[in-house]
Write a structure and sequence with these properties.
Layout lengths: L7 H4 L2 H31 L5 H38 L3 H36 L7 H13 L1 H16 L3 H24 L9 H25 L15 H32 L4 H16 L2 H19 L6
Helix pairs in contact: 2-3, 2-7, 2-10, 2-11, 3-4, 3-5, 3-6, 3-9, 3-10, 3-11, 4-5, 4-6, 4-9, 5-8, 6-7, 6-8, 7-8, 9-10
């Protein structure tokens, strides 16, 4: 297929096209899982505090899922609608959706950052942290909160890369962040070279810097070699119609992630009175369990732009 042909989602053979969209998406999700697991491996080896630090990060997981759920609300709500408009050859309207999503992600990120910095301690205690682990959990979340804007923008905008059929570009964006995170993890956590030992805060800094690099890659790409639908400042003025449509489509993905967060919170609360080690094990298990879903999730993510584009183009049979 020729990616220089802007209509390749509507003309390329479906089998090859689906494969080219699904495989990079699956790879990107596995890479994302990999550097989360590597994070936890390094945290678990922090001298004298590995188990407690790892439990503290496990308690943060429901809160991190809620943050991701807001990105899913915007990305999953906007990207499919942009795909349908691309199929209709209404690229100006698709760019308006992208601009609105970009602006909305920015505003949501600011609100979430303020909330996380101001009230993360009581929230984490409600999510199952104990007096032994709350210090580690708040250390991690304070740094993570500062990088919320980069996490939100990266997760949300990556969906727009995939929805245009450029799954390999989306995979590269995730890969850049993952590689930087994996390299920085031991340097920041254990204080290698001139870097002071930061412990669990180092893991959060490494994650934030990796996500920032992924976002910068997307913004530079948008400027140097624009995709079919570009970010434009003039399209960032909020539209009630666009935001309402985004909500109606994205709310299902948001609730799906929020309910998972609720489940983990409930399980943490049940396990906490028995032992904090149980929360540690649950956190590790959840990450490993998520690996089982990556194949199916990647196929679905790769299928969405193909269906959306052809639906918009009126190619129901295709």
């Amino acid at each position: 297929m020729n990616k220089n042909d802007k209509d390749f989602l509507g003309t390329a053979p479906i089998g090859k096209l689906l494969l080219s969209l699904a495989l990079p998406t699956i790879t990107a999700q596995l890479i994302n899982m990999l550097y989360n697991i590597v994070d936890r491996i390094y945290i678990g080896h922090i001298p004298e505090a590995g188990a407690l630090a790892l439990t503290g990060v496990g308690v943060c997981m429901p809160l991190i899922l809620i943050v991701s759920a807001f990105a899913a609300l915007v990305g999953s709500g906007g990207a499919p609608r942009a795909s349908i408009l691309m199929g209709k050859q209404e690229h100006d309207q698709a760019e308006q959706i992208l601009g609105n999503c970009f602006a909305l992600l920015f505003l949501i990120s600011i609100v979430l950052t303020v909330i996380l910095l101001a009230w993360n301690r009581p929230i984490l205690l409600a999510f199952g942290a104990s007096e032994n682990t709350i210090g580690y959990a708040t250390d991690y979340m304070n740094i993570y909160a500062i990088g919320t804007i980069f996490v939100q923008m990266t997760l949300g905008m990556n969906m727009f890369i995939t929805t245009q059929g450029y799954a390999k570009t989306g995979m590269l964006s995730v890969l850049i962040g993952a590689v930087i995170n994996i390299i920085l993890d031991p340097i920041f956590i254990f204080g290698l070279g001139p870097m002071p030992e930061l412990g669990i805060r180092g893991a959060a800094w490494a994650t934030g810097i990796g996500q920032t690099a992924s976002l910068l890659f997307y913004l530079i790409l948008n400027h140097v070699k624009p995709l079919n639908v570009e970010i434009s400042l003039r399209e960032m003025r909020p539209s009630k119609e666009i935001c309402g449509g985004m909500y109606s489509v994205g709310i299902a993905a948001t609730l799906n992630m929020a309910l998972t967060s609720l489940l983990l919170t409930a399980l943490n609360a049940i396990l906490a009175p028995f032992s904090q080690v149980y929360i540690l094990v649950l956190g590790v298990y959840y990450k490993l369990q998520a690996l089982l879903y990556q194949g199916a999730s990647g196929v679905v993510q790769g299928m969405r732009p193909l269906i959306g584009y052809n639906y918009g183009a009126g190619e129901q049979e295709r």
